[in-house]
Specification:
Blueprint (H helix, E strand, L loop, with lengths): L1 H6 L6 E5 L2 E4 H16 L9 E5 L4 H12 L3 E4 L6 H11 L3 E4 L8 H6 L3 E4 L18 E7 L7 E6 H14 L7 E4 L6 H14 L2 E4 L5 H8 L6 E4 L1 H11 L4 H11 L4 E4 L6 H11 L4 E6 L3 E5 L13 E2 L4 E5 L11 E7 L6 E2 L3 H7 E2 L3 E10 L4 E6 L4 E4 L2 E4 H8 L5 E11 L3 E10 L7 H11 L7 E5 L13 H6 L2
Parallel strand pairs: 1-10, 3-4, 3-5, 5-6, 9-10, 9-11, 11-12, 12-13, 25-26
Antiparallel strand pairs: 1-2, 7-8, 8-18, 13-14, 14-15, 16-17, 17-20, 19-20, 20-21, 22-23, 24-25
Helix pairs in contact: 2-3, 6-7, 8-9, 9-11
Length: 491
C-alpha cells in the first residue's frame, strides 16, 4: 500500500493533530501496527474480513483505519450519530467479523454483536508486537462506505486499494498538495469527502491533518486564523453557517479575519451544489474564491474547477487527471454541448462493486464499463454545470425538464429568503408540481404570490404552477445536504 509506505519518508513530521495533542507519522505507523497485530491474532492475513469501527475523528480513527488495511481487512467506518437500527443493518449487510469502538459506543450494540458472532474490540493502546504483516495487493478490497443514494436500502460501495490510490493521486496532482500543507478536518468520517479528499490526500503528501470534532463556527475561525493552516474543505451548509457567524462579529474582528483567510492556499466546497450567493458572500468576507468540485461515493472526485485559473460560479469545472467523462441522453447517445445529459464516468477511480449486490452493480455500468452517476449536467463554455439529480432534482412538469437547483439558486438571490429547497410532487394534470419550502430571513415576511411572480420573471421559459410553504429549517443529513425525501413529506 503506497499510502502507508510513503509515510516512512515523513516519519518525523506531524501527521495528525487531535485537540491539544500532535502525532508524528512514526507514531501513526507504530499505533496502526498495534491495531493490525490485535486483529490478526494467530492468523497471518484477514483476507478481506470486514472490520467495522465507530471511532471519534482524530488520531485513533486514523490508526484504526490504517491498522485494518495493514492486516488485510476491509474497513467499514460507522457514524457515531447513527441510530442503532442503521448500525445493525450495516453490520449485518457487511458481514462484519470485528467491531472496534470507542468506550461508550458498545453498550447498545454488545448484545447484537454477541448474538451474531461479531468480536468487539474497545479502542485502546494496542501492543506493538513482532508480527509479520501480509502482503496487500492493490486489487484487494479496502473499504465499504454505505450510501442510500435516493432510493432503496443503503448499499455498500466497495473500493479497492487501487481505487483509493487513484482518487488520492488525482486530487494531489490537481490541487498541488505538498508536505508543507496543513488542513483542518471538520467533516464526518464515514464519507469519501473527509476520508479521501482531506485525510488521505494530506497523509499521502506528508502534510498535517488537524481534527476538530463537533461544529462550532467560532472554533473553526480560531483554527483558520493560524498561519500554518493552508487548506480548508467543507460543505455549503458549513460555509453558510460560518458566514452567519461572521456577520455577528465586530467590524475590527471581521477585518482581521479577512486578512487571515485571504492568505490560505485553497478553500474547497463539495458534497452538495454550492449556491452562487454563498460563493459570492464567502469571497467578500475572506478574499477566497471557493473551488467547487464534483464527486460521489462510487467515484471519489471526478470533476473540479481549476486550482490555477478561472473558477466559474455555478460550474464544477473539468475532469480531474485520470478521469474520463461523457454526457449521454436516455438512449445513451452523446449529447451536444449546451444540452442536458447524464454524467458517465470511467477510470481507475471508479468503485469495484456494490457489496453483495451483483444486479445493482451490473445496472450501474453501461457501454464499455462507464458508470452511470444519475446526475444531469450541461457542458457549457469549457466547463460542466450540474443541473440536478435525475431522480429528485429534475422535475418533469407540463412537458418541461426543470432543474430544481436552478430554481433554488434564483430564490436564494432574495434577501428575504435565508434558505430554500425545491422538489417535484406528483400531480395528475402536470405530471409533477414544482414545490418550494422557504426559510425566511430573520424578521422577513414572505408573500407566496410575490415569490411566484419573481420566479416567473427570472425563469420565463417555465410557465408552470408552483406551491410554497414556509418552514423554520430544512431537513439535512450529516453532510449538510437537503434530504429531498424528507422535504417531500412536508407537502
Amino acid at each position: 500500500m503506497e499510502l502507508i509506505e510513503r509515510a516512512r519518508g515523513f516519519r518525523d513530521r506531524v501527521a495528525v493533530i487531535s485537540g491539544s495533542s500532535s502525532f508524528t507519522y512514526e507514531q501513526l505507523l507504530e499505533a496502526s501496527l498495534g491495531v493490525a497485530g490485535r486483529l490478526l491474532g494467530d492468523s497471518g492475513d484477514l483476507n478481506e474480513a470486514r472490520v467495522a469501527f465507530i471511532i471519534r475523528p482524530g488520531f485513533d480513527y486514523v490508526k484504526t483505519l490504517w491498522g485494518i488495511w495493514r492486516a488485510g481487512g476491509i474497513a467499514v467506518p460507522l457514524h457515531p450519530g447513527n441510530p442503532l437500527e442503521t448500525i445493525t443493518y450495516i453490520l449485518k449487510d457487511a458481514g462484519a467479523l470485528f467491531l472496534i469502538a470507542d468506550a461508550g459506543f458498545t453498550d447498545n450494540i454488545r448484545e447484537y454483536a454477541e448474538e451474531n458472532a461479531i468480536q468487539i474490540l474497545e479502542n485502546a493502546e494496542f501492543d506493538v508486537s513482532d508480527i509479520t504483516l501480509p502482503a496487500i495487493d492493490q486489487s484487494r478490497r479496502a473499504m465499504i462506505l454505505y450510501t442510500s443514494g435516493t432510493t432503496g436500502s443503503p448499499k455498500g460501495v466497495v473500493t479497492t486499494h487501487k481505487n483509493i490510490e487513484a482518487q488520492v493521486k488525482s486530487l494531489v496532482e490537481a490541487w498541488e498538495w505538498s508536505p508543507d500543507d496543513h488542513i483542518l478536518n471538520i467533516l464526518p468520517m464515514h464519507h469519501v469527502h473527509g476520508i479521501i479528499n482531506v485525510l488521505s490526500c494530506a497523509l499521502w503528501s506528508g502534510a498535517t491533518c488537524e481534527f476538530l470534532t463537533g461544529f462550532d463556527a467560532g472554533a473553526v475561525f480560531d483554527v483558520l486564523r493560524r498561519s500554518e493552516v493552508t487548506l480548508f474543505m467543507a460543505v455549503p451548509t458549513i460555509y453558510h453557517k460560518l458566514i452567519a457567524h461572521w456577520e455577528t462579529l465586530p467590524e475590527e474582528e471581521q477585518k482581521e479575519l479577512y486578512n487571515r483567510l485571504r492568505e490560505k492556499r485553497l478553500m474547497v466546497s463539495g458534497s452538495a451544489a454550492l449556491p452562487v450567493s454563498v460563493m459570492e458572500k464567502w469571497k467578500m468576507i475572506s478574499g477566497q474564491v471557493l473551488l467547487e468540485r464534483y464527486g460521489m461515493t462510487e467515484i471519489g472526485m471526478a470533476i473540479s474547477n481549476p486550482y490555477r485559473g478561472e473558477r466559474k460560479p455555478g460550474h464544477i469545472g473539468q475532469p480531474l487527471p485520470g478521469v474520463n467523462i461523457q454526457l449521454v441522453d436516455e438512449s445513451l447517445e452523446p449529447v451536444a454541448d449546451g444540452e442536458q445529459g447524464e454524467i458517465l464516468v470511467k477510470g481507475e477511480n471508479v468503485f469495484k462493486e456494490y457489496w453483495q449486490r451483483p444486479e445493482a452493480t451490473e445496472e450501474s455500468f453501461v457501454l464499455d464499463k462507464w458508470f452511470k452517476t444519475g446526475d444531469i449536467a450541461i457542458y457549457n463554455t469549457d466547463s460542466y454545470k450540474i443541473v440536478g439529480r435525475s431522480s429528485v432534482d429534475i422535475i418533469k412538469s407540463g412537458g418541461y425538464k426543470i432543474s430544481a437547483l436552478e430554481i433554488e439558486e434564483v430564490l436564494r438571490r432574495r434577501e428575504d429568503i435565508r434558505d430554500c429547497g425545491v422538489v417535484g410532487i406528483p400531480d395528475e394534470e402536470w405530471g409533477e408540481l414544482v414545490c418550494a419550502a422557504l426559510v425566511p430571513s430573520v424578521g422577513a415576511v414572505i408573500e407566496p404570490k410575490e415569490i411566484d411572480k419573481w420566479i416567473r420573471q427570472m425563469l420565463p421559459a417555465y410557465k408552470i404552477p408552483r406551491k410554497y410553504i414556509l418552514v423554520e429549517d430544512l431537513p439535512r443529513n450529516a453532510m449538510g445536504k437537503v434530504t429531498k425525501k424528507e422535504l417531500i413529506k412536508q407537502f
